[in-house]
Amino acid sequence: MTTAIGQYQYDQVDRDFLAARIEEFSEQVARRLDGALTEDEFKPLRLMNGLYLQLHAYMLRVAVPYGTLNAAQVRAFADVARRYDRGYGHFTTRQNIQFNWIRLEDTPDILRLLADVDMHALQTSGNCIRNVTSDEFAGAAADELVDPRVHAEILRQWSTLHPEFTFLPRKFKIAISGSPNDRVAARFHDIGVIARPGDDGRVVFQIFVGGGLGRTPIVGQELYDSVPEERLLATLEAIIRVYNAHGRRDNIYKARIKILVQALGVAAYRNEVEAELAQMDIARYRLSPEMVASIEARFAAPDLQAPEGAAAVLAEQRAQNMVFDRWVRSNTHAHRSEGHIIAVVSLKPPGEIPGDVTADQLDRLAGLSERFAYGELRTTHLQNVVFGHVRQDQLYDLWRGLVDVGLGAPNVGLIGDIVACPGLDYCALANARSIPIAQKLGARFADMTLQEQIGALQINISGCINACGHHHAGHIGLLGVDKRGEEFFQMTLGGRADDQATVGKILGPALPEDDTVDAIARIVDRYLQERSGQESFLETLKRVGEAPFKEAAYDTV
Amino acid sequence: MKRAVRVGAGEGLVITANRLLDGAIVWLSADHTWQTAIQRAEVLVSDAVSERLEGVQSRAQADGVVGIYEIAVRPEVGGPVPLTMRERIRAFGPTVHPQFAYEQQEGAGA
Amino acid sequence: MTLFNLGAREAGHYAEPVTLADLVEQGEARSVVLESGDEVAALKPYLNRLELVVLRFPIFRDGRGFTQARELREYLHFGGEIRVEGHVLPDQADFLKRCGVDSVVLPEGSDVRPWERQLKRYSVSFQRSVLPEKVLDVGTRVAR
Ligand code: HEM
Ligand code: SF4
């Protein structure tokens, strides 16, 4: 097995724990099969192991803690896809991977296979603290202040089988970032944490609470500006304890923490948290520098050595190959270390299913990560994957390898980089199919020159109000609705998930699928006419307002 | 989903569920067994449905099925065709992976 | 009914527990039953007399009882017996114990083996609880 780079290294205690957890799940399956557990009792238990019952089969959601994978883990996904699924994996907006064609009876074996590479499906569903997400550029981005993965791992461990918080009113999602450029949608999480260096050299945390999408989209509010590291766990316990005691349990649509924060107001919520902290045995919750150091010691840092002139090699290759140059423009990000670069792989080839990868592609990604990226791969909340540390003089070879497996689309951050949930093709809760319209939009804007000309434009599609595709946070958002048995799409404009998080505004009446694709094409045309200079879509929208776009959208000659 | 299923003229109802062991979609046939092909489903008139539902609900654990409910279909030569897109996708497979369609498996037993 | 002990403390025998409202009225009862919506803090005036607090779970998914138990131990330093009744699953045995619950009321004839297995399942946990657990040397781990 390759050494994990940006990832906590398991020891025997962790492995024994996972084995015991799988044993527990196998016994639960057996009790379900012999009738000792009813379906209503079993469902929350299987969900805590990431197992859903979808339209056609069970779906298993495997956790990718803070989005970091090593090559062996990626190969294990390929193995699961081949042996237990139909040859595919699907990356989600919470950095996890889903398999859509799973059998209940195979699940314990799949979990054992994953445990062999220190992977699990724990708490990827259910009304518990979910897999903690983080910045896909962690430890690599030039703009990062604190590497958030150590604290993400601490939160992962602390939340694992938490005795008090495993039967919350509703699911609970935490994201953590260490960059002022929010790439984790911190303000759309139940708790969003932004880490930065404090005055004394220890990390401090800005904490947002009560954000979320779904039926009631709300931008999270700041609860604390700077919580000291020692108080991080105490503060989170207090926040969640207030929620567990007072969050609504009578109506699942009003059960998220955001509803409680809205009902109380953030100031009153803070008072409640303070009242808990005042009674808590704070010493017991203390996160000491030694504890942090013991986790940090399990992470390996890559030895970043780029040869002299790596940047020049890259510049030369870009000058010689226009197609490569375009890919570098859209699909890379500045690295903190000289001679290195971050490469984003688009899982949105035009006309394909966003986030889908085949078993063969997974194997190839694993191989490429070993050759070019210290054996590490990351997943993003936009359903793409990232090679965190690539030598600039090797970027061209990496790109060639990607093109070879059909993963060379130069569209990251552009209109073709569509986020879509599984929708009605797989999901039991859906109103409409999200994937076909994503494919049609991808095909409509397949021209890469046009995409580049349009510039930054994020389309997000959800098949129902649960908003798994983050439609409220898309620059253009599409929500599938059911109109007398027909699939319609309601459009929102102006959403964003970054540090200026905004909920998109509904443009007008919902349209059928093909009309929606046409309407978006007209909106984009209108933007190209209206924009001044290098303005982005969002900037133009802000300047001219939604009226011209509304006119364009509903202008059916 | 809990809305009463409305049936128009010439339409009928079939009863469906998922199999507990593998999650596969199954349809209730005339001999009261669960079949994986909708072509084998028995088309019922509204009046007959609630009694049949009660019967299969009480046997759900023994039969190894979960999430039993009824859906509206139009009987056609090739077999019943569900009225909603959702149920057509359940009956015939996801629309986005033609290779996963169910038609080829016609007649496969439960 | 069957009484199952989660830890070392043997379940005791007490007079029929009264509701929180009755406790407030009478004051002298030694055992009380809380619904999942009741505030534990309301027990403060009666603590030195109370020997048993029963927490009722209306359904296993209602996790408020875990917080109630923890508050009783951690905030009110309640040293008497905490018992759980209602709809709970053996899968929750360890969670209940680590939140400070001593015993569980099960329907007569229940199979207690899944409860026993669950209590022995893990040799490590990843966060402190109200039990006196030994802190290990990595992160937030404690030995069981
Ligand atoms: C296919 C099976 C799925 C089911 C049944 C499902 C179900 C749900 C439900 C019911 C909610 C709303 C919860 C609430 O607001 O309380 C939700 C939210 C969410 N889902 Fe899914 N989901 C599925 C797949 C996915 C996938 C594939 C992704 C990623 C692409 C995803 C990402 C999310 C996210 C990020 C949210 C949070 C939105 C928020 O902040 O409220 N889900 N999901
Ligand atoms: S948004 Fe709705 S349709 Fe899409 S995956 Fe979530 S629950 Fe299913």
From TrEMBL, chain A:
Family annotation (InterPro entries): NIR_SIR_4Fe-4S, NiRdtase/SiRdtase_haem-b_fer, Nit/Sulf_reduc_fer-like_dom_sf, NO2/SO3_Rdtase_4Fe4S_dom, NO2/SO3_Rdtase_4Fe4S_sf
Domain Nitrite/Sulfite reductase ferredoxin-like: 58-116, 345-402
Residue intervals passing through the bilayer: none
UniProtKB keywords: 4Fe-4S, Heme, Iron, Iron-sulfur, Metal-binding, Oxidoreductase
Pfam families xrefs: NIR_SIR, NIR_SIR_ferr
Source species, domain of life: Bacteria
Start and end residues of each Nitrite/sulphite reductase 4Fe-4S domain: 125-278, 417-553
PANTHER family, per the entry: BLR3264 PROTEIN (PTHR32439:SF9), FERREDOXIN--NITRITE REDUCTASE, CHLOROPLASTIC (PTHR32439)
Protein name, UniProt field: Nitrite/sulfite reductase
Species of provenance: Neokomagataea tanensis NBRC 106556
TrEMBL record, chain B:
Family matches, as InterPro entries: DUF2849
Protein name as it appears in the record: DUF2849 domain-containing protein
UniProtKB/TrEMBL annotation, chain C:
InterPro entries: UCP030820
Protein name as annotated: Oxidoreductase
Species assigned in the record: Neokomagataea tanensis NBRC 106556
Any one Pfam family match given in the protein's UniProt record, by short name: DUF934
